[in-house]
Amino acid sequence: MPVLRNISSKLPDTTPSIFSLMSGMANEYNAINLSQGFPNFETDKKLKDLVTKAMNNGYNQYPPSHGVEELREEIINKIANLYDKEYDPETEITLTAGATQALYCAITAFIHPGDEVIVLKPAYDSYEPTIRINGGKPVLIQLKGEDYKVDWNEVNKAITPRTRMIVINTPHNPTGTILSEEDMKNLEQILDGTDIILLSDEVYEHLIFDGKEHQSASKFPGLSERAVVCASFGKTFHNTGWKTGYCVAPEYLMKEIWKVHEVTVFSVNHPMQRAYAEYIKKPEHYLELSPFYQKKRDLFLNLIEQSRFSYTPSSGTYFQLLNYSEITQENDVTFAEKLVKENGLAAIPVSVFNIDQKDHKQLRFCFAKTDETLERAAEILCKL
């Protein structure tokens, strides 16, 4: 077969993600997998039954491109009740094939060759490749210290006439930190008077612990007027494989996102949308998730209390960082690989998300697992 010789990769330096690598190793070594961010317990049977009902009722063809009307309205009501922000269900929301597609469409809709996009590191690994695919330049700013705080003065200094977008993520993957009200007001002040778009990744919005509150970009008028806010049903309702999410934004931004969405997937999962529309009519289905996952977090931390790991309890998401510097000074990638091969437990090394792979001797563990799985994992950690 002839080989085409003049193919030029748009992402020549891209390698398999750390999630694929560590999950692959977990499978190879039959290890407990606390690396990749997905629950190993079942979706609520009520929600699965609603999908079956939707299929049996004939909702198996294309839905409206930007989403089923009933679901759009329920999401808008949820946002209004939680964040006191009114979006238009006809012009300011789109259902997407997971939050990653929402992020992709938002970046693709607005980033032109030469545009700069500020990304706070560590960061979810889809942001930078999508920026580069569109000819943009990621401008990377490292979160500070082992508690990963934003230096807003550094963010402000990074803004140039070519800055088109800034990407934030709260609650934050991989660190489990959250942005405070003060953080959001600082950002609001920095962006005031600029033409910079805010892309706010809020897929873990319903997983907040210890009485803290999620500070959505939708809550702040100076942010919501320029923000694309992305969310995920998969992260919320334990069914990441259903790949259903959404984004909200002012109409003048959303009309550009629709153009990309239409030629990317056109529309998403019709029966799942019908099911979610019915399911989220009961707010307890998402409001009860924070105590549910906090119980998981607390169980995991109590189980490893006698270990040699140190930690600050996660404030959100279903991830917990553990510092292993009392065990070894090996770099985190090496230690994570040994933990799989020699001890049968998979985690994610955090340095791969940092600028210059800055290594704080931390691994990220996913606690969205059954109690039995967490107990088995903790037993391994306590022996190190």
UniProtKB/TrEMBL annotation:
<keyword id="KW-0663">Pyridoxal phosphate</keyword>
<comment type="similarity">
    <text>Belongs to the class-I pyridoxal-phosphate-dependent aminotransferase family.</text>
</comment>
<dbReference type="InterPro" id="IPR015422">
    <property type="entry name" value="PyrdxlP-dep_Trfase_small"/>
</dbReference>
<keyword id="KW-0808">Transferase</keyword>
<dbReference type="GO" id="GO:0030170">
    <property type="term" value="F:pyridoxal phosphate binding"/>
</dbReference>
<protein>
    <submittedName>
        <fullName>Methionine aminotransferase</fullName>
    </submittedName>
</protein>
<feature type="domain" description="Aminotransferase class I/classII large">
    <location>
        <begin position="31"/>
        <end position="380"/>
    </location>
</feature>
<dbReference type="InterPro" id="IPR015424">
    <property type="entry name" value="PyrdxlP-dep_Trfase"/>
</dbReference>
<dbReference type="InterPro" id="IPR015421">
    <property type="entry name" value="PyrdxlP-dep_Trfase_major"/>
</dbReference>
<dbReference type="Pfam" id="PF00155">
    <property type="entry name" value="Aminotran_1_2"/>
</dbReference>
<dbReference type="GO" id="GO:0016212">
    <property type="term" value="F:kynurenine-oxoglutarate transaminase activity"/>
</dbReference>
<dbReference type="InterPro" id="IPR051326">
    <property type="entry name" value="Kynurenine-oxoglutarate_AT"/>
</dbReference>
<dbReference type="InterPro" id="IPR004839">
    <property type="entry name" value="Aminotransferase_I/II_large"/>
</dbReference>
<dbReference type="GO" id="GO:0005737">
    <property type="term" value="C:cytoplasm"/>
</dbReference>
<keyword id="KW-0032">Aminotransferase</keyword>
